[in-house]
Amino acid sequence: MSPFTVHTLETAPEASAPLLQQTLNAWGFIPKLHGTLAESPIALGAYNALFTAITTKGTLDAKEQQVAFQAVNVLHGCEYCTAGHTFLSRAAKVPESVIAALRDGEPIKDNARYEALRQFTEAVVRQRGRAGDDAVARFISAGFTRAQVLEVVTIVACKTISNYTNHLTHTPHEAFMADPMLKWVARPEMAAV
User: Fold this and answer.
1) Rounded distance between C-alpha atoms, residue 39 and residue 19, angstroms
2) Which of 72, 151, 178, 187 is most enclosed, with most CB atoms within 10 A?
């Protein structure tokens, strides 16, 4: 099968070009994921809408958003998004120990709130939304809200679009993903979710 095109403003389907322009305006460049999603204006529009809503209107702070994003990326075994969200986590000033724990699929030992968020996000993904009342109660007792339960679901939906797209299309990595600190390799037991 021929590889998917990583579209530019010039090659994108007509309905995707304005969405890529919005991405360029927001990010200063067009990530290869967005260029790949541009093949389908519906997919690109859905991803952009979810990501923008999460990062501009969500009640989880920027660090918490990255914890949840990364928990999904690692469980789905998505190298592109794990590398990308390592970069975004550093930009949000997530501690390196938290970044490493998330990338390694390990508990976050030095921040109980982040660990509760990681556990709940992973439970939602692993159980395909059927994490159960006890998981919701533990999440809320850790200081989160019912609205944030649903924000986690939105993050899972957003990352499912990007992770699955990257798996199916083999999205090329960005230059900034050549970070020598990134030694993460998808483990079969994590990608099986």
Assistant:
1) 11
2) 72
